Amino acid sequence: MSFEEDPYIFSTDTLPSDRRFLPPLANGLLGWRVYNNIMHMGGVYNGEGGRCHRADVPCPLAVKVETEEPGQNAYSMNTHTGVFTHTLSLASVSVTQSLYSHRYYPNMMVMEVLLVRQVTSEEPISVNLVGSFTPQSKDIVFESGPDYKGGSHIHGKVTTAEYPGGSCPAVHLIWTPIPPTLTLNADQSQGRWGFVLVVANSLESAENTFDESLDLMATGKLRPSHEKAWKELWLQSTVEVKGSDSLCKALIGCMFYLLSAFPSINNTSSSFGGVSPGGLSNGGDGQDYWGHIFWDQDIWMYPGIALFYPKLARSVLEYRVGTVEGAKDNAQKQGFKGLKFPWESAVSGREVCPEDIYGQQEIHINGDVTLAFQHYLYLTEDVSMFKEGQGKEVIYGVADYWVSRVSWNPEDKKYHLLGVMPPDEYYYNVNNSVYTNTVAKFSLQFAVELAELLQDPAPKEWQEVADQLKIPFDEESQYHPEFDGYIKGLFFVIQVKQADTVMLGYPLGLQMSPEIRRNDLEAYEPVTDPDGPAMTWGMFAIGWLELGEAEKAQHLLEKCFKNIQPPFQVWSESSDGSGAVNFLTGMGGFLQAVLFGYTGFRVQKECLAFSPHLPNDISELCVRGVNYLGSQMDWLLRKDEVCIILREQEKTAGSTKPCDLQVVLKTSGTKIPLTPGKPVTFPLEPGCVCKLVSMSLCWPL
User: Fold this and answer.
1) Where are the alpha helices (DSSP H) in 381-422?
2) Boundaries of each Glycoside hydrolase family 65 central catalytic domain copy (predicted)?
3) Annotated active-site positions, please?
4) Rounded to an integer, what distance in angstroms lies between the CA atom of residue 59 and that of residue 36?
5) Is residue 543 a contact partner of residue 682, using CB atoms and an 8 Å limit?
6) Does an H or E element contain 357, and which?
7) Residue 25 contacts residue 100 (beta carbons within 8 Å)
8) How confident is the model at residue 532 (pLDDT cuts 50, 70, 90)?
């Protein structure tokens, strides 16, 4: 690569003036912004209903290293290892402070300090550890517990349950006490200190994890086990480009912060609390959407992770399965059958949006959730997620909701969805949002398809409503109006908030001619709010890439760089730095523009389709670890050719299924079998959609 420095390491001599843009350290359970005295734990919320928010947990590791003499500072976020480092260099001593949320042991956070003497001297050298920790929280009433094996201990419960009669989660903290100073004695050339914080929901879990941390420190395995886990994670996914250093670095940052929000691929013991727009490091009272889970998780963040990590993808689906009872309650309160997933979700699945109108009207969330399940099945063939994993309850329950929610219109003999808010939240109480109706139609069709696969009875109304649900379309202008009554050209003054109708082509996959796809893009691009959420332009970019206009797509994608805040590649929701911070939704949209735009990947029932388009300044795209039907592949895309390497398959107990993947070139019909370990290179046919297929799918082709 052309980098003079490692693109996986974000370095600086000065911290950002806006401390919101300090790097978050998270591991799917614990999240913290470095130096902040507040952290959060997944699934721990305080407040009822619309007042529900991530509970603030005090962080004992909120410590800065300082010296009496001024020194030279250097800061780095190493995304290879997930370690943030502050190095303070003086003539007499070099001080290195390292911070990380443990990637393998999710209940642990760690601070390490290394002092190295720089000159021969018989004088002791001391540095100050300046902390801002106080054992208090506005959300949790903490009490001191007895010390445990030298560790300080506080514990408490959140003050208010998510809903009447709900539980108030407990939080236990055990940590290595941090002294005000560290001293390198006269006879020492260097000294190393380790400080561990353990956060858990029970005393037993906290003590067991603290015991584990002491053993790891004693054997020198604390940090190596963390770095090994990150290495294993990166081996399963790499997205790099040649030709644009800034784009390559941005993609690395997106993957790192998104992966930090998901659980360990080795951890199956704890339940996953979902991914909120600002991640675990944010989401306190009134901040960054309160840490709630939106469609952002299922539509914006999930696809880029599911392409590489089936286990992490399944954890998202299991989160939704765990909220089924709450979704059932939401539907009943609205007077409908089935399941109504909340616009804003916490733990129970009951609606926790502070403003009722969103929970009442932004019902496209139901289809967004089922789309994630559908893509998972097509990517993995994991039918167990739908049987034993109870995924079919989600799919069937959503279908029942749509059937009870629609209204029959005798004039056009179509079913309508009335009084909704589309993804474009500048409008509400509209009829027949084209996005909402389309995603509802597809989720009904998937329910029928799944019922057939599992040999379950499917109510005839599912197919009937799917067939007769109105999808707004303007025959004269050959484009999709955003909703009934939307007139192209009339709304040039009143803007569209974010990607909405342009998402019909991707990710929904509504079939349309190139002319209609172009008309939709041209109709909505000039009226989309330039200061709207960061993920929007990625969807426009994908649309233009579908039409083969890579340079136009690249121009739109470059708008996203305004949302990337230096020096740690932390995203803001809006380009002026306002809105949610560590905006994972924007990162997810940006990542999809490359993973599903440049490559043309489309997850379909019978194949993984691809149709690559690279802009002029990108000479090569490398995507390693794509996981399709249990096979991992590395893809190398250049202007005129594609190279695919099927990785050697790990033998698992009881596994007898042979690899039967093959590439089908649509224009010529050529079939190229893939053999583990052997690169397959073939010329790129401009504008041609190719397919990666298997002949042993669990459903008939």
Assistant:
1) 391-405
2) 282-488
3) 425
4) 7
5) no
6) helix 356-361
7) yes
8) confident
